[in-house]
Specification:
Helices cover 49% and strands 23% of the residues. By secondary structure, the protein is α+β, with helices and mostly antiparallel strands. Keywords: Cell membrane, Coiled coil, Membrane, Transmembrane, Transmembrane helix.
Length: 886
């Protein structure tokens, strides 16, 4: 009886602990939900702000393109025909991806790039542009094809006067394509509405096409008033977050106004998505509470049943004693059964004739009772009786019958055997087993509840961690750990803008980073960017902020400098930090940087204007030879515009046959016989006249146009030398200059071989000239490509020796034939003995290394006499012939 009471107390205490744990879990859920809602609202607002900035960047980018086109001479010059301007607009539409572009006079009469005449004088965007204001229109129905479009309009300025309006239209679909890319989870949505509530961008395009007004039509659409309240609050604030109900589902949303417009960017997600994990725990807690109640009631019922069963067992035991209803099994020393009473037959299901003298006691013992059977045998061997032994037997059907036995030794007139006298306790064992299992189940449920509480705590911590990750993703570069553009722009707004102190923006761009990516792979490129970030952090101080803007572009914001010398000192330190090579995966990679500097407030009073100015200055630094810095001024802007025009003109120059080759002969000094020719590229542009190679070659390299242009030069030069050879001059060769960009191409050697085969030339008829400084930019990769050319049999020259690294130590390892001495050394021959001796020493050393020497730019007889004294092999220059066309 006391055992039953003790087990009941265990059950009751377990249920009480479980109910208390569920209540505690409910409190944790309630307070965690409040914290999560607050964190989600802040995160949705942040994501909406980033989405608004992404839309703004797209809009401003398109507007900037139109402004650039409007600034071209062909567009703004009123003396150029309209037909010519329309041709340019057609090309720009194809290149930029606008639906169409149009040009309008001051009366509002316009003509599109498709040649369609349209009146736009009453359009708001035309009126603003006519007043000199570049602007982006609200959605309007196009008068050309009646589609819903956004218009980007800018004034056309000539001699500081507005002479017309240039505008481009874009199908409103492009805004929805932007919002489609910005989503929160599987069921989240983003959208754009204007300040009147009209839908401009949405995943459901019919809402955009029908110009659905959520503020006016919410009742017609069957929406809850919470929808109206949310969108009303959006019109009153720049940013914010809230919730509303759609089709019975609670939606959380954030919004932000898109700068420069009256539009709002919104992002939403259903509560079911946000709270999916915590709801699962909530349902589980509810299940546990219900289960606890059921278990409690079942336990009460079970205790009553157990009490009755125990009473029945006691009654049965008393009756068994009274009626001798016990099981008796006798067996000899070999274990063979000799006695098997009627109760044994009833309990175990065997007949006496099946058992007596045929079966052993061990044949009936349950495998789980083998240890107790062995204990029985030990007592038998010692002739010791047993008062109580649990020994389970299996009946005829294989079912286990739990028995408790006493052991007696029988001596029947000398016939000795052992006798087990026992009773069936299977029912009692079953009841006890059920009690144990019930207790174990309750204990298991309690442990699961405790684990659920721990899981809830961990998920809350996980949500907090993810909030921090969202903030990190929004404001820091994931690769380098530096601040990103959003972060540094916010720093400028909070700490510099509207102050009287001076500040500087240093825009850094790595020189030839694309070469590293193409040569070593993007993994090495990423590792290099990480090393560069560490390099920058080691140079700046605590008052300066470093950021990675993207790709290989970095920025340093220098706060409160006292004079320009401090800015220059920082730029010099940054450049100096790149002098040592970076070790990455057993490779030593050398790279430099170009820095553009814009000053606040001299060059602009806002971050974006200063960013643009520093970017322009950086390109000027690159144009000055890279690995340097430059301050922004208006003249640089003019140079950038000039560069863009040159680049645009070059695209059509090849097919328009504007390029040509001039050829300057090279002579053997000893015999005066022509050794060959150097091919020199010239450009007579239809728009710019003759353009210097020093100007357009660099632009061709940075834009990638050097690849088709270089192939054209190689093909044209080989065609020329083939004609010379056909005239009977079999031993002549043609020298062609090669850019490092061409060397980088995987098919360069194959293309050289194909051109030689095309014209039936021997490899020795072609001499490729590689500039010394370009060769040394990545000596390992360039040497590999040069050796491939050498195996082909093509001659190789090191051009402009002395202008670049001027190192003689690596010459013996280079597979070259000819060393070309730069003109500057030749010009200095007659100026001083020191410089003339240096030129002579270079010739002598080259001969010792087995190289031939070509002297460039020989213009005077005294120079030729000096070169003859040192046995220079070949010369070229105006003394013999200037470069001549074909």
């Amino acid at each position: 009886m006391r055992g039953v009471i003790r087990k009941k107390a265990i059950i009751m205490s377990s249920i009480a602990i479980m109910i208390f744990s569920v209540i505690i879990g409910g409190f944790i859920y309630y307070f965690a939900s409040g914290a999560i809602i607050a964190n989600i609202s802040e995160s949705l607002t942040q994501i909406a702000v980033m989405g608004a900035k992404a839309v703004e960047s797209n809009l401003e980018g398109s507007l900037a393109v139109i402004e650039t086109i409007a600034a071209e001479e062909t567009i703004k010059d009123p003396n150029i025909s309209l037909e010519k301007k329309i041709e340019i607009l057609k090309r720009e539409v194809d290149r930029k991806g606008f639906t169409r572009m149009s040009i309008a006079d001051l009366s509002g009469n316009s003509i599109t790039s498709e040649g369609i005449e349209v009146y736009v004088g009453d359009r708001e965007y035309f009126k603003l542009a006519k007043e000199g204001k570049a602007n982006i229109s609200k959605p309007v129905v196009s008068r050309v094809d009646e589609t819903l479009v956004i218009t980007f309009a800018v004034p056309i300025m000539f001699n500081d006067q507005v002479t017309g309006v240039l505008y481009a239209t874009e199908d409103i679909e492009f805004l929805s394509e932007i919002t489609d890319e910005i989503k929160l989870g599987q069921y989240g949505r983003s959208f754009i509405v204007d300040d009147m509530g009209v839908t401009i961008a949405h995943e459901l395009r019919e809402r955009v096409r029908n110009r659905m007004n959520i503020l006016l039509d919410w009742k017609k659409l069957g929406y809850n008033k919470t929808v109206y309240d949310f969108f009303s609050s959006m019109q009153k604030n720049e940013t914010g977050a809230g919730k509303f109900i759609v089709n019975g589902s609670l939606i959380y949303a954030g919004y932000a106004k898109i700068p420069g417009t009256n539009w709002y960017f919104g992002i939403s997600a259903p509560r079911s998505q946000i709270f999916r994990s915590i709801n699962q725990i909530y349902y589980f807690l509810g299940f546990l509470l219900l289960a606890s109640i059921i278990i409690f009631l079942a336990a009460q019922f079970q205790i009553r049943v157990l009490r009755k069963r125990l009473k029945v067992e006691r009654d049965m035991a008393a009756a068994a004693i009274d009626t001798a209803n016990i099981v008796i099994i006798g067996f000899n020393k070999y274990g063979v059964i000799q006695e098997f009473n009627n109760n044994a037959e009833t309990k175990l299901g065997y007949k006496k004739n099946q058992v007596l003298g045929k079966m052993k006691l061990l044949d009936m013992v349950d495998i789980d009772s083998i240890d107790n059977y062995n204990k029985l045998m030990e007592h038998i061997n010692k002739n010791e009786e047993l008062d109580s032994l649990e020994l389970s037997l299996k009946n005829a059907e294989g079912t286990v019958v739990y028995m408790i036995w006493s052991l007696n030794f029988i001596d029947d007139y000398g016939d000795k055997y052992m006798e087990l006298v026992g009773m069936d306790i299977s029912q009692i064992m079953k009841v006890e087993k059920e009690l144990v299992e019930s207790h174990e189940e309750l204990t298991s449920l309690y442990e699961e509840l405790y684990a659920s509480e721990e899981t809830l705590r961990q998920q809350y911590e996980e949500l907090s961690r993810k909030e921090k990750e969202i903030h990190k993703l929004a404001y820091y570069d994931h690769l380098t750990g530096l601040a990103n553009r959003t972060n540094v722009e916010q720093y400028f707004e909070d700490n510099i803008k509207d102050r009287k102190d001076c500040a500087a923006l240093l825009f850094m761009d790595l020189d030839n980073f694309k070469f590293v990516n193409d040569t070593f792979g993007h993994f090495v490129g990423d590792e290099l960017l990480i090393k560069v970030a560490e390099n920058i952090k080691s140079v700046i101080n605590e008052n300066q902020v470093a950021a990675r803007l993207g790709g290989d572009e970095f920025m340093i914001v220098m706060d409160e400098y006292r004079n320009l010398q401090e800015v220059e000192d920082l730029a010099e330190k940054l450049l100096k930090s790149f002098e040592s090579s970076f070790k990455i995966n057993d490779s030593m990679i050398s790279i430099s940087t170009s820095i553009g500097i814009a000053l606040y407030p001299d060059n602009g009073d806002n971050f974006r204007e200063l960013l643009k100015c520093s970017d322009i200055a950086m390109y000027d630094a690159k144009a000055s030879g890279k690995n340097t810095y430059a301050f922004f001024d208006e003249k640089i802007n003019e140079k950038i515009v000039r560069k863009m025009k040159i680049q645009n003109s070059m695209k059509d120059a090849i097919k328009n046959n504007e390029f040509m080759l001039y050829y300057q002969p090279q002579y053997y000094i000893s015999t005066g016989r022509i050794k060959g020719f150097e091919a020199l590229l010239r450009w007579n542009s239809s728009q710019h006249g003759f353009v210097s190679p020093s100007e357009f070659i660099g632009i061709a390299e940075t834009s990638g146009l050097i690849i088709p242009l270089g192939y054209w030069v190689l093909n044209e030069a080989c065609s020329f030398i083939k004609r010379v050879i056909d005239m009977g001059y079999e031993d002549v060769s043609i020298s062609v200059n090669v850019s490092v960009i061409q060397l980088m191409q995987d098919d360069f050697v194959e293309n050289v071989n194909n051109v030689l085969r095309q014209y039936g030339l021997k490899p020795s008829n072609l001499q490729l000239e590689i500039t010394e400084s370009i060769l040394m930019e990545n000596i390992d990769f360039n040497l590999k490509r040069i050796r491939e050319l050498r195996r082909l049999g093509v001659g190789l020259s090191l051009d402009d020796f002395g202008k670049g690294y001027s190192s003689l130590t690596y010459l013996r390892d280079l597979p070259i034939d000819i060393l070309k001495i730069d003109k500057t050394f030749i010009d200095n021959i007659l100026e001083s003995n020191e410089k003339s001796c240096l030129t002579g020493n270079i010739i002598t050393l080259a001969h010792d290394l087995g190289l031939s020497v070509v002297a460039e730019g020989v213009e005077e007889e005294e120079q030729l006499k000096y070169l003859k004294c040192y046995n220079c092999d070949m010369v070229q220059g105006y003394l013999f012939s200037k470069p001549l066309p074909r």
